[in-house]
Amino acid sequence: MSEIRNRQWRVARYPASNEPISSALFEWVENSVPEPSDNQFVVKTLYLAPGPALRGYLDPNHKQFLGNVPVGEVMRGRGIGVILSSKNPDYAVGEYFVGSLGWQDYSVQHPRGKEFVFSTKKISAPLRPLSLELGILGQSGATAYFGVLEAGRIKAGDNVLVSAAAGGVGSAAGQIARIKGAAKVVGLASTDKKCQWLVDTLGFDAAINYKTADLSHQLAEEFPKGIDLFFDSVGGDILNTGLAHISLNARVALCGFIATDYDPHANIGPINYRNLLYQRATMQGFIVFDYWERFAEAEQALRQWHSTGELVFCEDLSDGLEKMPQAVEDLFAGNNSGVKICRVNDEPA
Amino acid sequence: MSEIRNRQWRVARYPASNEPISSALFEWVENSVPEPSDNQFVVKTLYLAPGPALRGYLDPNHKQFLGNVPVGEVMRGRGIGVILSSKNPDYAVGEYFVGSLGWQDYSVQHPRGKEFVFSTKKISAPLRPLSLELGILGQSGATAYFGVLEAGRIKAGDNVLVSAAAGGVGSAAGQIARIKGAAKVVGLASTDKKCQWLVDTLGFDAAINYKTADLSHQLAEEFPKGIDLFFDSVGGDILNTGLAHISLNARVALCGFIATDYDPHANIGPINYRNLLYQRATMQGFIVFDYWERFAEAEQALRQWHSTGELVFCEDLSDGLEKMPQAVEDLFAGNNSGVKICRVNDEPA
To answer: Minimal Cα–Cα distance from A231 to chain B, Å?
Structure first.
């Protein structure tokens, strides 16, 4: 077995402020496969799901939840894998596991406290492809679920706007809003092709290419009575323009700020926050980790909707561990339709 | 009776964008006292309560609820008066009435729909001075009450920041927060004298002169665990700085934007809105009119707290109808401590 190596991307340096994520930031190393100690088990990575948070792990100035990955360490990343060897009776060889596997083939794992329920979880009855568990049945789906239901307080008849609608979370959020009885769901995306996809494949009522459209004019057309629920993962100008079109008692669910989070020049807040008063509206930030106690509820609902075909899973697949740096950059360039997934090793049959 | 005249301030022109409110904008005229028609009654103005909204009535570019006052018309204004003559059996001569009396001695009134419950109301058991009904027992108190309880969702143990704390609404909001069990109430004001008054007279735990202090540093000192409830009537830099210090699950109640509302150069939103996500917090606008169905509840609570001395009423009194333009400008200059009131005619004994 000495020929099996553990391929890894380790952090070589942090990017400059506007430098894209690329393989130049990482070192590709090959080590031996680790062995588990007592209570541990080793997981073979099958898929990784790069998210926008990854860039923050490489930015010491960025406010975030998990801290930086030190230079020299394996890059952090969530994935699903299969248990290869185990010295923990609760984690059997061959079982599937979602967690912080890192950008590598093999990782040593141990059970985590409840605060990491979303990032460390044994999958008892996985659906295929296993990447579903990273996408609409996993953290992307749960983020959309709690954002739409809790921060968004969706009501039947709501007119809903979703930004970054072609992304992993946004594509789920729009569908969940529709399932929950929204009167209209409109998505924002960066290309005509993605807009078409939102309408044709995901069943959005309309989609707006915010890069080419007069966004404010289009929102006025699509929402003559105003936006009741705005699910926003973008921030910046898009949030500000959306705020100008909210309805009475609207809810704005803040999921992220990919437009401005890593741009030191985008240092301007949304002046239309004043519309929150004029419309007696609410803007609320949320983080999926806060809902770990209700994850079973989300999981059950998402699986149910997936099984009936109401909730379509779309992944944007890269192939091979070597593609991970590019996969992250693709996210920031908005190149993905659906949940960005990188296949690291083939699923067991 | 022909010697009794109805003195009026009528709008002569609208102010330029940065022009202060002054008597130059109004025309002083004296007319005869009006007579009521069927269902109407005539009210003699005793007190007027100028509020920040008044400036909006003179600004065609300002988004607002009641619309502009046309040039040539009597300036709009809320007040309390006594019924002088009546052709409505429900409104008897000698009864007290709160409503949109205008900047004048005598106005013709009629019963309004429920949407104006706050601005048109017969006072059945008025306390003295009657200006109480315009202040802490009236719209200022009710605004603070619903802002703290509803948009602010006050909880026992909250650490509370109130901006414009020496103003009519802010001074009530801080006291109501304390009554509702806040662990700490800190006010922001523009002079050391007002700060001292907040602590000594109103029982705030601390007050910060935001004009001379390093506000962010002071907030960090006063709120080592963060601000749980921020009751803001100011907007602009103060809102932004406060947002930087909110705690997990904090609530920001937006009551107004006096800092930026009439300043065309203050066109920058609060970049720290992003902290709403990091802290899973909520920013919510509210307007007291929305709570008309619960006004009796607020009235009962405010009277109860006032009767026990828990809720101190402070008014900043100007004397004489001729002082109204200056009274409004005083509001914007932040010269008042407590509810700004203008005495137009003496209370009946």
So the answer is: 13
Give the residue with greater pLDDT, A17 vs B138. Answer: B138
**N- to C-terminal Cα separation, chain A:** 21
Domain with CATH 3.40.50.720 in chain A: 139-289
* Residues paired with A227 in a beta bridge: A246
Residues of A (30-59) whose Cβ lies below 8 Å from B: none
User: What pLDDT digit, counting tens, does each position of B73-85 carry?
Assistant: 999 999 999 999 9
CB spacing of B277 vs A267 below 8 angstroms: no
Distance CA A323, CA A194 (A): 22
Question: Which two tokens mark A145?
Answer: 């679920």
Q: At what angle do helices A236-243 and A215-222 cross, to 10 degrees?
A: 40
Q: Where in chain B is the domain with CATH 3.90.180.10?
A: 5-135+313-343
**CA B240 distance to own-chain centroid:** 22
Q: Report the pLDDT value the prediction gives residue B1, as an integer from 0 to 100.
A: 45
Question: Is pLDDT above 50 for A1?
Answer: no
> For A201-234, b where at least 16 C-beta lie within 10 A, e where not — what string?
ebebbbbbbbeeeebeebbeebbeebbbbbbbbb
Flag whether residue A257 sits within 8 Å of chain B, measured between CB atoms: yes
CB of B343 closer than 8 Å to CB of B47: yes
Facing B63 at nearest CB: one of A278, A281, A290:
A278
Tell the CATH topology of B139-289: Rossmann fold (3.40.50)
Phi, psi of B144 (to 5 degrees): -65, -40
Q: Within 10 A of B185 (CB to CB), how many other CB atoms are there? A: 28
> B270 and A254 in contact (C-beta within 8 Å)?
no
- What percentage of chain B exceeds 90 in pLDDT? 74
The verdict on B125 touching A (C-beta cutoff 8 Å) is no
Stretch A83-104: mean pLDDT, rounded? 94
Select from A240, A280, A283 the Cβ nearest to the Cβ of B290.
Answer: A280
Beta strands in A266-307 (DSSP E): 282-285
Are B108 and B314 within 8 A, CB to CB? no
What is the model's pTM? 0.91
Mean predicted confidence (pLDDT) in A225-233: 97
Residue B30: which H helix or E strand, with range? strand B26-32
The pLDDT value given to residue A327:
92
| Mean pLDDT of the region B251-277 | 82
How many beta carbons lie within 10 A of that of residue B125, not counting itself? 6
Which of B257, B261, B277 lies closest to A285 in CB terms?
A: B277
Average pLDDT over residues B97-105: 94
> Looking at the complex, does the CB of residue A61 fall below 8 Å from at least one CB of chain B?
no
The residue whose two tokens read 């103060």 is B238
What is the pLDDT of chain B when averaged over all its residues? Answer: 91
A287 vs chain B: nearest CA distance in angstroms? Answer: 7
Residue A46 gets the label, from left (phi > 0), alpha (psi -120 to 50) or beta, of: alpha
- B256 min Cα distance to partner chain A (Å): 7
Q: Which two tokens stand for residue B49?
A: 């309560």
pLDDT tens column, B32-88: 999 999 999 999 999 999 988 888 899 888 766 778 999 999 999 999 999 999 999
Distance from C-alpha of B109 to C-alpha of B85, rounded to nearest angstrom: 10
**Under an 8 A CB cutoff, do A283 and B279 touch?**
no
For domain A5-135+314-343, give the CATH superfamily. Medium-chain alcohol dehydrogenases, catalytic domain (3.90.180.10)
Fold of B5-135+313-343: Quinone Oxidoreductase; Chain A, domain 1 (3.90.180)
B277 to A269: CB separation less than 8 angstroms, yes or no: no
The ranges of chain A annotated as CATH 3.90.180.10 are 5-135+314-343
Distance from CA of B16 to the nearest CA of A (A): 22
Q: Contacts of residue B277 in chain A, CB cutoff 8 Å?
A: 254-257, 285-287
